[in-house]
# Entry
Amino acid sequence: MIDSYPMPRERNSILISLGVLTVGAWAFLIWQSSMVDNQAIGLTMDMGAPLFMANWVAMMVAIMFPTAAPMILVFAKVYADKRQQGKAFVPTWVFVASYLTVWTVFGVLAFAAALVTERLMAQSLWLMSNAARLGGGILVLAGLYQLSPLKRSCLAKCRTPLSFILNSWRDGYGGAFRMGLEHGVYCTGCCWLLFIILFPLGIMNVAIMAVITLLIFAEKSTRIGQQMAQLAAALLIAYGLLVVFIPDALPTMMKA
# Structure
């Protein structure tokens, strides 16, 4: 059985790199949040595609890198052992880059869906007047998804890095890239609606991003992960229902 972590020097190097990227991403998001026009409305807050995607990728780095660190360390450990044995070596960034690719593609799809929704709302008085209630519905949906079998299955994969690596291992650059994609798919399946709720709550709402970060970390990295997912479900459903019946419960500046 392999040890869960690479050698101390390499482990520290990976953790420092992830830490620097995470801190840099949070600094960028906080700066961008301060630059947002408070009068901007809509799901994308009037951001064009390049700016939206820059913020999205930064958000993925800020939120997901800390929770993905155990998986990244296990991957690095396996290849550190291979290198010591004189076997072919693949750098860890290949795995990380493909993992981030999945979230980037999801961001493109989310942005496209948000643009279509904004255009539909501009053409429909009913959609415009019920925007907050629809946002409440998204919150309820996110809460229900927290209790779904698919959520539990994806979360289980994310909570067991060593098991994932052993059962999904593929050699070479192509294999590492495919493993990163696979882990990214499980991770997206676990957390996608926790990011979709940022649209009704404010795509640049740093406070909500921080809460989501803590929730995902608790789900994936603590013994009470399943219980935290259930608690989040109850809170999302309760708040979503409140917004459905009392639209003013949604932050005013986030309404369309």
Notes: The radius of gyration is 20 Å.
